[in-house]
Amino acid sequence: MIVGAGLKREGVPFLILERANCIASLWQRKTYDRLNLHLPKHFCQLPYIPFPADFPEYPTKRHFIDYLDAYAQHFAISPMFDETVESAKYDQACGLWRVRSANVDGSTTDYLCRWLVVATGENAEKVVPEFEGLDGFAGEVVHACDYKSGKGFSGKKVLVVGCGNSGMEVSLDLSNHRALPSMVVRSSIHVLPKDVFGVSTFELAGLMTKWLPLWVADKILVAAARLILGNTERYGLKRPAMGPLQLKHTEGKTPVLDIGALARIRSGDIKVVCGINKFLEEGVELVNGQILCVDSVIMATGYSSNVPTWLKESEFFTKDGFPRSPFPNGWKGKDGLYAVGFTRRGLSGASADAVRVAQDIAEIWNQEIKHKSHAVGVACNRR
């Protein structure tokens, strides 16, 4: 939508293909009910339009969806819904991208376009790890994208696989609804306070990295976390050797911002367990040999890019579906190919790339109009 807004401002014609039947489908269809933004709103607003002044500092899921709806309406962005791109390939002969999309009725539509912006992002497909015995488990298995609330899990023993921000919040939500959650923690993880003495941890990190080396900022953040949260290793949450900011920049791993789960871990309401060796009919066997009986499993195991399944290109994107060049240089390929939403830096990274993409396309478009190029008018054609 940000690219569309930028192009709309510059008068460049464009078309958005969306496989869902609504905008922001990840937020509308694949997030749990209690979700709030974990960062202050001014870090999450899109370019050109700020959040309404009366929105809370940490907007709710509903607030954010309303904001996105208003954003689309303001710029008159009308995606082609229920269109799943099956393939996209650059045609050297005509110098255009050929895109084929499948419709809900089973028919297909072909498009020709000068520029192709890949904006499917990091979270296009859910990831469900393969576990021995999972097919024989008698209980319910749900991915976090299909989890809405802990209401239906009251009194049940629930295993949450994954200890990132989603895993922590799902565990907290289950505990709030009187379920009995156990959270699988396989590797080390940084847990940071949501704010440090009234200042958002995210904002503090941003300020420090403007003036300090990453390793110094990391030491300050970890020291503040120990002071505010205590020693998390006592509860089975071992910290990585690499600091949280350096880990984010090098490996894309996001630290957990604590919103209350740690207190439940301390109290024993949320159990921390080690990795899974295999599933049994009524539970799991952990890597330490412990047998854990559970009624349900929530897979908070993340998402992946789906770019390799449809984009017929191998120079700009890796086999994992991410641009080969890291942020901030992964937004532009060749032959009119662009990427948005693959920075592993949340909305701020996606916004930065989207603005660059829109500006770059608009500059070319306006130059062609100025010189009355024959190419003007074929930004995107439906065939």
UniProtKB/TrEMBL annotation:
Cofactor(s) needed by this chain: FAD
Pathway named in the protein's UniProt entry: Plant hormone metabolism; auxin biosynthesis
Molecular functions per Gene Ontology: flavin adenine dinucleotide binding; indole-3-pyruvate monooxygenase activity; N,N-dimethylaniline monooxygenase activity; NADP binding
Keywords carried by this UniProt record: Auxin biosynthesis, FAD, Flavoprotein, Monooxygenase, NADP, Oxidoreductase
EC code: 1.-.-.-
Major enzyme class: oxidoreductase
Protein name: Flavin-containing monooxygenase
Provenance organism: Salvia splendens
